[in-house]
Amino acid sequence: MEHYLDNSATTRVCPEAAQAAYKAMTEIYGNPSSTHTLGREAKKLLDKSRSQVAAALGCAPGELVFTSCGSESDNWALLSGAEAMKRKGRHIISSMVEHDAVRRSLDELESRGFEVTRLKPDSTGVISAADVIDALRPDTILVSLMLVNNETGAVTDISAISAAMKAAGSKALLHTDAVQAFMKLPFTAKTLGADMISISGHKIHAPKGIGALYIKNGLRLKPFIVGGGQESERRAGTEAMPQIAAFAAACEAGRTGLEENCRRMAELRRNAMDTLKAGIPEVRFIETVAPHILSLSMPGFRSEVLMNFLEAREIYVSKSSACKKGGRSHVLEAIGLDARTIDGAIRVGLSRYTTEEDISALCLGLIDASRTLAHR
């Protein structure tokens, strides 16, 4: 029996999203920019889908632009955000534990003459509002910090950072990569107070290839992709209607019982920790708040060996961000873990479909691994 616990990398498409995509491909298949009947039907579906995703994010439909993924949203927010503000300064604040979509955008901005301050997190991966305020300068134009860390599950208080920046009189834009937080933690664009928010579909049981960027009303960003006048002339290219419709359907399905799903995932996560502590005395956890990410390590064992051992039992986890494709985690290094702990780290990603049986299989597998592999 399969036990999929790599939901921070991607999720299984839910039936509602799959049905919505199929309908958009086979029935409402017109181009939303066409003026004939099929085009108007597609435009109606586009508007409805935008409203549904916006409702899940707690923003106005006009503040949401569809993209191809969270990485595109991050790239656009940072590169165009910095360009929009460069006359006011060239200093940017971020952290040492961001996703590569942000890290490499920051590298690009540095090559263009911007200065980047990368804040060091605490021992779980959190960036404090105090550290952000300490780093603020008169020429700071952009702050970009992840809401939920994709490797540790650390939750940075973006609301507090937004409030602190306003209290300090900062003119800087605030961007947050909320890909790992969207539909996993209760929040809205209003409560976060960010100017730009990146989200992605395939982390919430929609297909791959669809994301969105929240752009606060009044903020004008230069288009990242140019061509036609789609997305109110903010992102060119014919809208990917099957993915967009599926994204909206996944949002609608996920909003039902969101708080209960979060509570249940947190309970499953806690049960896993309790069971593993009892069965593997040397196991280490990164204690964080997010209910759907469990970062653990079995020092002395190799992540790849543990993953292969579990895969043989049809239990699927990862060793860090799926985007890394090997190599030591920059996140775990930044929070100060020793090499032995990092080399034995794995990430468990839960979803609303995760069951007690999945967690039980994981725990039994790791306990068996600790006993079996130790004698090799």
Description:
It is a single chain. The protein has helices spanning 15-26, 37-57, 70-85, 100-111, 129-135, 158-167, 189-192, 230-233, 241-255, 258-279, 303-311, 330-334, 339-343, 356-372, and strands at 3-4, 64-67, 91-95, 115-119, 140-144, 173-177, 196-200, 211-215, 284-285, 293-297, 315-316, 345-349. The protein contains 14 helices and 12 strands. It is globular. The relative contact order is 0.17. Helices cover 42% and strands 13% of the residues. The mean pLDDT is 96. It is an alpha/beta fold and 376 residues long. α3 (70-85) packs parallel to α4 (100-111) and α10 packs parallel to α14 (356-372). The strands form 3 sheets. The chain has a 7-stranded mixed β-sheet, with helices on both faces.
